[in-house]
Structure formats: C-alpha cells, structure tokens
Design brief:
Helix content is 44%, strand content 15%. The chain contains nine helices and seven strands; from the N terminus they run E-H-E-H-E-H-E-H-E-H-H-E-H-H-H-E. The chain has a seven-stranded parallel β-sheet, sandwiched between helices. The longest helix has 27 residues. Bound molecules: 1,4-dihydronicotinamide adenine dinucleotide. The site of 1,4-dihydronicotinamide adenine dinucleotide has 27 residues, from helix 1 and helix 7.
C-alpha cells in the first residue's frame, strides 16, 4: 500500500461514487484529504468516514467548471491544510445522445465539467505544488491524477460530448506532464472501463450485457479498482511514471 502519511490530497466530485472511493483509499494510505463537490454538505458522509480513519478531512462546495470557484476552493484548501501534494480530477458528468441530435447545451455542459474543470484545477494547483519543498530545499512537487475513460480512447456511439471530453483529458494529461515534469510534478490519467456506479446503473440490461461480453475478466470494475490505481500513482512507488494513461478496464481494450 502506498505510504502517503503527511501528504495532502484534493479530490473533486468526491461526495459519492469513484471520487469517494478514491478519497477513502488515499486516507487509508495516510493522506489528509480535501474533498469537493457541487455542495459542501454533500461531502459530509465521506468526510466523517475519513476522519474515522484518523486523518484530517474537510468538504468544500465548488463547481469545477467555474474558474473563480476553483481558484477560491484551492485558496481555501491551502489556508486549511497548508499545501496540496496530490490532485485528483475526478468530477465528471454524462449527457448522452446521438451526435446529430446533440444540443449545444449538452455539448458545452459535459466539456465544461469534464475537460475545463480538469484544466482549471490543474492550473490552480500547479504553482502551490511547485512550492512544495523538503526541509533541505529539494523540490517535492506533486502528483496530478486525472480520471479519463476507456471511451476517451476508443470512442462510443451516443457519447460525442463525453468521449471528446475524456479524449481531451488524455491529451491534457500528456501536456501537463511535459510542462511540469521539470518541477517534479507528475501527471497521469486513469482510464476506467465499465465501473459499477450511479453513472452506469441507469444503463439498460442489454447494454450492460453487451459490455460484459467485451470484458475478458468477466466482471464489471468497482470504484475500489480505480482507487487502488490512483493511490499507486499518487505515491513514491510511481515516482518515475508521468504522462501515462493507466487503463483499468478488465482487459476491454489493450
Ligand atoms: P458519479 O456521478 O457517481 O459521481 C460524480 C461526482 O461528481 C458526483 O458527486 C457529482 O456531484 C460530482 N460533480 C458533477 N458535476 C460537478 C461539478 N460541476 N463540480 C463539482 N462536482 C461535480 O460518477 P462516477 O461513476 O463516480 O464517475 C467519476 C469519474 O469517473 C467521472 O469523471 C467519470 O466520467 C469517470 N468514469 C466513470 C465510469 C463508470 O463506469 N462509472 C467509467 C469511466 C470513467
């Protein structure tokens, strides 16, 4: 298990689902965790669960798509926790529909949360991460982990907005790694396959079966499967890993 004692992590969209599992796993590894979601009170349950593990935790309300809110959130986290070592851009939404019928609003909403939100938080934490130094002045940098998706790699009918946003997250991950690598800030993405969650629970049974037939491991993934990959990327065991897209998809695609 990664040793994250004394580190501070900031996880977006962490009131529930994969984000809550990531926050919990990072706390289990010893990190103090700032959790954000659209409303601070939605984070209460996750915050209580983390505190019960003996780490510091606090919830923040922020819309990741709004620049001023993101900057204010990072400022508040720095005031409360003093630093950010691990940034997990997890908040994401879907608004599915066939491309020919997709409205401008549905396109914009998904791109704004999934892609712009990832950019805004990355930009806001970059400078504070650059300032993270060991007592002897060695730059400690940080680890940024973006949650992409298998469909951002392979495309998916009915998800033009979502696939484009996640493909964008993948490209942004690689660029961030190139720009910030010299400051010891690593940036990687985890690309989940089909994960059991509120997002996928709504899919009809025939669609779920069609997905299952494409998964060599013959099971849907869990939020914990994703959280484990994130914790590894956050810690020193991944200290020479940056600009990578780690697929956690049961073998759906190589
Ligand atoms: P979820 O819908 O259960 O959780 C998403 C969280 O993000 C919610 O708590 C929601 O309130 C929050 N959120 C939404 N818009 C926000 C905004 N504008 N500002 C702040 N927070 C906001 O979704 P799930 O399944 O946990 O997904 C988490 C991430 O994993 C997303 O980026 C999703 O695209 C990605 N993913 C999920 C897969 C799945 O099978 N569930 C597969 C591949 C990727």
């Amino acid at each position: 298990m990664a040793d994250l004692k004394g580190k501070v992590a900031l996880v977006t969209g962490a009131a529930r689902g994969i984000g809550a599992a990531i926050a919990t796993k990072l706390a289990e590894c010893g990190a103090n965790v700032a959790i954000c979601d659209l409303k601070a009170e939605w984070c209460d349950e996750t915050v209580a669960a983390l505190k019960a593990r003996g780490v510091e935790a606090k919830g923040y309300g922020v819309n990741v798509a709004v620049s001023a809110e993101v900057d204010a959130c990072v400022k508040a986290v720095l005031a409360d926790f003093g630093r950010v070592d691990i940034m997990v851009n997890n908040a994401g939404i879907t608004k599915d529909g066939l491309l020919m019928r997709m409205s401008d609003d549905d396109w914009d909403a998904v791109l704004n949360v999934n892609l712009k939100g990832t950019f805004l938080f990355t930009r806001a934490v970059a400078r504070p991460m650059m300032k993270n130094k060991a007592p002897d002045g060695t730059p400690l940098g940080g680890s940024i982990i973006n949650i992409a998706s298998v469909v951002g790699i392979m495309g998916n009918a009915g998800q033009a907005n979502y696939t484009a946003s996640k493909g964008g997250v993948i490209a942004l991950t690689k660029t961030t790694a190139k720009e910030l690598g010299s400051r010891n800030i690593r940036c990687n993405a985890v690309a989940p396959g089909f994960i059991q969650s509120k997002m996928t629970d709504v899919l009809p049974e025939n669609v779920r079966k069609a997905y299952m037939d494409t998964i060599p491991l013959r099971r849907f993934g869990t939020a914990l499967d994703i959280a484990k990959a994130v914790a590894w990327l956050a810690g020193d065991d991944a200290s020479y890993v940056t600009g990578q897209i780690i697929s956690v998809n049961g073998g759906m695609i190589g």
